Amino acid sequence: TGDTGQGARTWIKQILNQDMAFQHIKVIYPTAPARPYTPMKGAFSTVWFDRYKISNDCPEHIESIDSMCRGLTDLINDEIKNGIAKNRILIGGFSMGGGMAMHLAYRFHQDLAGVFALSSFLNKDSAVYQALKSNERVLPELFQCHGTADELVLYLWGEETNKMLKSLGVSTSLHTFPNLNHELNRTELEKLKTWIVKKLPVEAAKTN
Question: Could you confirm whether the keyword NADP appears in this record (predicted)?
Fold first, then answer.
C-alpha cells in the first residue's frame, strides 16, 4: 500500500541489482489510484482496493475490488490489441497487488497464463472462492511466496489461501521463506523469474 508501480520497479531493482527484465517479455508496473483507505483512518493512499480491516476474517470491500478489476481489464485488453495472446499474459503483485491479481484472474480472466502473489492473501469467504466453486475450466497456475515472519499479512493467511485455491482446482505452489517479514528478497525474486520464463518460454521461431 502507498507505493507506485515505479516504486515497485525500483525496489525490485535494488534487491536484484538489475531490472526484472526478459528479452522476450514486456513487464508493466501499473500504479493503483489514490483512494481513501479505511485501515489508515480514511487517509488517501495508492491502494488497489479498500479493506474494512487488514484481516482475513471480515467481508471484502467488493465494490472497490470490482471497480479496479474493470480498470485492469482495460490494461489487459490494450495488450491483446497490441497482438499479445491472452495465454501469454501473466499477472501478479506484492501484498495487496497479489490479492488484486487473484481476483482479476480467477474471477474475470481464467484464460491467462498464470498468477503470482507475494505476501498476499484472500479473505475467508472471498468472491474468488465463490467464483471457482462452479468452475469447469483449466485455471491459471498460481505461484505464491510468503515469509513466515510476516507481521502484517500472516503466513497462515497465505497458506490458507493456497490450500483453498488448490481445493478448488487451481494448480498452486507455495514457497516459504523463514524469517522473512512483509518484504521481498533476492531468492524469492530469482524463483519468480525462473517461474515466469517457464510459463512464458521463448516461442519457437514461427515457420510459414
Answer: no
